[in-house]
Design a protein that fits this description.
- This protein is α/β, with parallel strands linked by helices.
- It has three domains: 134 residues, no CATH class; 208 residues, von Willebrand factor, type A domain (Rossmann fold, 3-Layer(aba) Sandwich); 59 residues, no CATH class.
- It has 13 helices and 15 strands.
- It has a six-stranded mixed β-sheet, sandwiched between helices.
- The protein is flat and about 100 Å long.
Length: 426
């Protein structure tokens, strides 16, 4: 007879950790804008792009820092990490094992995928016969990518945090000044017209019929007797989110690109869950403008680029003209003046010194083209220099849109408030 022996389960450190809370804590690391093109030296701003933030080794360092910041390590582990010299190899091994298990768990849950960038495999657990340096080298050769599930989770958490300050909006559509004959009745009834939803106001319909023929039975209904409930007309909206990827978005000791990414993910989650008829497309603009799919947003990077606002507006307008939604808009997040345009022959004209009239003229022409196409431009500026204020006001006046000067900390709340409430913020 087969005998099964049961022993008491003894959980490890991993069982006490909240993986979702930990991933949220890592959101800025996972959405790091980085710097495209590798190391780059600017005569005024110095070196950029020196760190590799997509390797598993970098992920483990970020995980370890998050565990320390949230007090989720054992006292022995914290004491070992704070020691100047390695004192307890067993505790070091426990820390390395915990980090490996966390990475494996994030992959198993579908938040990340791993890709080997070299001949070495695995995640480098620091155990067995390999040395710590060899394990770290192996981890540097393996890179991670945030999956669609991971992006959707980050978008959900970003949206929840952004909506908390002013409450959740009603879901289902964008309010307009028109009325319709939908299911939710929140206005007076009116006579039925051909094409209306047959959401009958029974009492008013019967009253019309009885008033016309008298209190005789059966009641003979006629088309002219029909009354239908009215509700606020809900429209669909196509949105293009323009993200500035010029060099200044990660300079001056402040990363302005991560908050912009969070806004994009939060908007995407909001639209997918509450506004199924809407659409969202993302356009990045540096020296050139290009559309990027939401699945690649986490890997988007800034670079040694100028700000070709005109090219971004041109591409956004072309994308929106192909959409069938009744409402269309451009949301532009930037922190600087336009400093480049694409000439008719495809050559790039750049000038970072002041407000170049040639560049401004081309930018304003694209803004006017958006206005003629019925596409408002809502600008969220992450700087407030006097010349930027003048530029944004002129752009807003031409495009008949809205403008708001915000900080990276308040950017998401202002964008969400504008999207949900349709209230002028500038």
């Amino acid at each position: 007879m087969r005998v099964t022996t049961y022993t008491r389960y003894r959980g490890g450190p991993l069982d006490a950790l909240n993986l979702e809370s930990l991933i949220e804590n890592l959101s800025e690391f996972l959405l790091d804008g980085g710097f495209a093109g590798g190391p780059h030296f600017h005569p005024y701003w110095g070196w950029s792009g020196l760190e590799d933030t997509s390797s598993v080794d970098a992920l483990k360092r970020a995980l370890l820092q998050a565990l320390v910041d949230t007090d989720q390590l054992t006292p022995e582990m914290l004491e070992e990490l704070r020691a100047e010299d390695p004192g307890n190899p067993e505790v070091r091994r426990q820390i390395a094992d915990l980090l490996d298990q966390l990475v494996e768990k994030m992959v198993e849950e579908g938040y990340l995928t791993l890709q080997s960038g070299g001949s070495g495999g695995g995640t480098g657990d620091g155990s067995g016969g390999a040395s710590v340096d060899e394990a770290r080298e192996a981890a540097n050769q393996v890179h991670f990518q945030v999956t669609r599930r991971g992006l959707d989770f980050l978008g959900y958490r970003a949206l929840r945090n952004l909506l908390n300050p002013f409450g959740h909006s009603s879901a289902g559509g964008h309010e307009t000044l028109k009325t319709a004959t939908g299911v939710d009745a929140d206005a007076g009834s009116r006579r039925w017209e051909f094409g209306d939803t047959l959401n009958l106001d029974i009492s008013e319909t019967l009253r019309n019929a009885i008033g016309r023929q008298g209190p005789d039975f059966p009641i003979d209904l006629d088309y002219r007797d029909l009354m239908v409930h009215q509700s606020e007309y809900r429209s669909t909206c196509a949105t293009v989110l323009m993200l500035d990827i010029s060099h200044s978005m990660v300079l001056y000791g402040e990363d302005r690109f991560i908050p912009a990414k969070k806004v994009a993910l939060a908007l995407h989650h909001l639209i997918r869950t509450n506004y199924p008829g809407d659409s969202l497309q993302v356009v990045t603009f540096g020296d050139r403008a290009r559309e990027i799919p939401l699945a690649r947003l986490a890997a988007a990077q800034v670079g040694p680029f100028h700000t070709n606002t005109a090219d971004g507006l041109r591409l956004s307008r072309r994308l929106l003209r192909a959409q069938k939604q009744e409402m269309r808009q451009i949301i532009m997040i930037t922190d600087g003046k336009p400093s480049a345009i694409t000439l008719p022959g495809g050559r790039l004209y750049r000038n970072s010194a002041g407000l170049d009239r040639r560049i401004l003229r081309a930018t304003y022409q694209e803004a006017a083209a958006c206005r003629r196409s019925g596409i408002p431009i809502n600008t969220f500026m992450l700087a407030d220099d006097d010349y930027l204020v003048r530029f944004v006001r002129q752009l807003t006046q031409i495009a008949r849109g809205k403008a708001c000067f915000v900080s990276p900390m308040t950017l998401g709340q202002f964008v969400m408030h504008d999207f949900l409430k349709r209230r002028r913020v500038g």
